[in-house]
Each structure stands twice: as structure tokens, then as C-alpha cells.
Amino acid sequence: MIKLIRVRKLYKSTEAVKGIDMEIREGEILGLLGPNGAGKSTTISIISTLFPPTEGQVIFEGQDIVKNPKAIRRLLGMVPQEIALYPELSAYENLKFFGKLYGLNGAELESKIDEVLNIIGMSEKAKTPVKTYSGGMKRRVNIGCALLHNPKILIMDEPTVGIDTQSRTYILETVKKLNREGMTIVYTSHYMDEVEYLCDRIYIMDDGHIIAQGTKEELKASMTKENTIIINFEYINNNLVDAIKSMQDVKSLIVEGDTIKVTCEKNSNLLQKTLLIAQDLDCVITSFFVKEPTLEDVFLSKTGRTLRD
């Protein structure tokens, strides 16, 4: 459906996207997972033709949309990370304004507004000014504005940042529902659990690169040669951390309070070695367990740090 081929984006001397390849398939929810500053927003801005890449191609159904952006614009709905609404207007008035920008008028526009208000669960608050809404309600109206013209592809940039749990759940279920009805969705997030719950396939980005891709099952399977071990101590000192970190089989290590999280070779005897080191250094282990791999572990294995770092 859409292919990115060796796409780069430079902002003066900063390279935000570093020669990535990507494919978006019709009817899927594609996840773009990575920390803030990874290049996710730049990538979707290029896909949505907000600005061109410095190098590379974006092909939509055989046409290069870098050269011909009109080939895709009418088929796209864009939900930006920042709230893009007029606060003095109501949800209804915002939807009416944006609907007219899409060329909708009269009975068709009124019908579509009613439909969208129902989808986003805002019918009862439709005539109340946006400035009185909670963050989650504003996010829902933001999504509604992108749905007015029946887009074939919906691009969502961190749509649940800074909202309450109830609104977050509502938005995630709305995304699922829209996809079941046939909409292709590109969903960016730094929340691993959202991407794991929603997405058919996932690209993990870091520092402008795609560092892993596949289904969540494929990405987790890439960890089959490794274990993640969580070890809790009564007390951790620098000598203990340095001793564990220096072990040959250690792939990555992070310290959180009195807990050490280690990724190591699957057949490693790291746990036994750690027990001996802890004993020598008078560091008491209170508990330990081997953790099932997650997308967070995939990122940690590839970069040596967590998504929140």
C-alpha cells in the first residue's frame, strides 16, 4: 500500500531519519514504537506529505507521493500529537469547521458530524466549549476531526499522551473498532503496552534508525537466545554492579533502586555467578525470576537502555 524507500530527513545539521525502509499494508494497524526523539513524528509527517524527505521515495499504490502529494492527501486522516482544536468553540463547531475544510456541506456534513460524535463518544458534550473539556475529551475530538472525510488511512501520533486511564482505554478501543471496519492505521507511541495490544506489525525506531521490525511474536522470538533475569537485593553497591556488568554473557544491565535487570545468553550460568559475587560482597539477594520477553526487552537488547531512558 505505502512503501518508504531509503528515506532520510535532515533539519539543518540534524539527521532526524537515517535512511529507513518501511511498508504499510492495507487493513493493518502498524505500530511505530520508540522513545521521544527517535524519529517517529518526522517519519509520519513525511508519509502524510506535511514535508518532503531530504532523500528517498514514498510510494503509494505505484505513485511517488513526494513528487505527487495529491495522490494520497484526500485518503489520509492525521491525528497530531498536539491538540489541534479551537478552544473557544464546541466539539460540534470544531467538527463543522474542519468538515468544511474537507469540502463537506449541508446535510452531508451534519450527518457526518453526528456519526463522528457517536464514534468518539462526545454526543452529550457536543455543544460545550472545548476549553472546558478534560485532556482525554480533547484527544477524542482531535481524532474525530481526522475522521470526517472517511479516510482510507488514519495516522495517529501519540494520541494518548497525558490523558486519564478511562479516556485512554476508550481511544484504544476506538482504534480497534475503526480497524475492524476496514481502516488502515499507523499508530506511533512510546508506550510499549499500547503497541503490543493494538498492532499487527511493529517497527521499533531509535535515533532515526529502524532497529527491529515484525509482528510482536516475531520480535519476541528474536529474544529466544537470551534471558532477562530480575534480581532483587537488600542493598546494591557499585562493586556489585561493576562485577555483574563485566561478565562475558551480559548483553545489557539496568539498575532500578535495589533491583538489577540483566539480559544475558539463554544458556548462561549468570545467576549462579551472581549468587557467588553477591555472597563475596555481602549483598543479600531477596528474590529473583526469569522474565518472559516483551517489546521493552527487545528494545533493551538492541540499544542497552529502556524506552523511558
UniProtKB/TrEMBL annotation:
Q: Where is the ABC transporter domain?
A: 2-232
Protein origin, superkingdom: Bacteria
Instruction: Extract the InterPro entries matched here.
Output: AAA+_ATPase, ABC_transporter-like_ATP-bd, ABC_transporter-like_CS, DrrA, DrrA1/2-like_C, P-loop_NTPase
User: Which UniProt keywords are given for this protein, alphabetically ordered?
Assistant: ATP-binding, Nucleotide-binding, Transport
Species name: Serpentinicella alkaliphila
Q: What is this protein called?
A: ABC-2 type transport system ATP-binding protein
List the lineage, top down: Bacteria, Bacillati, Bacillota, Clostridia, Peptostreptococcales
Where in or outside the cell it occurs: the entry states: Cell membrane
An example Gene Ontology molecular-function term:
ATP binding
Membership in a protein family? Belongs to the ABC transporter superfamily. Drug exporter-1 (DrugE1) (TC 3.A.1.105) family.
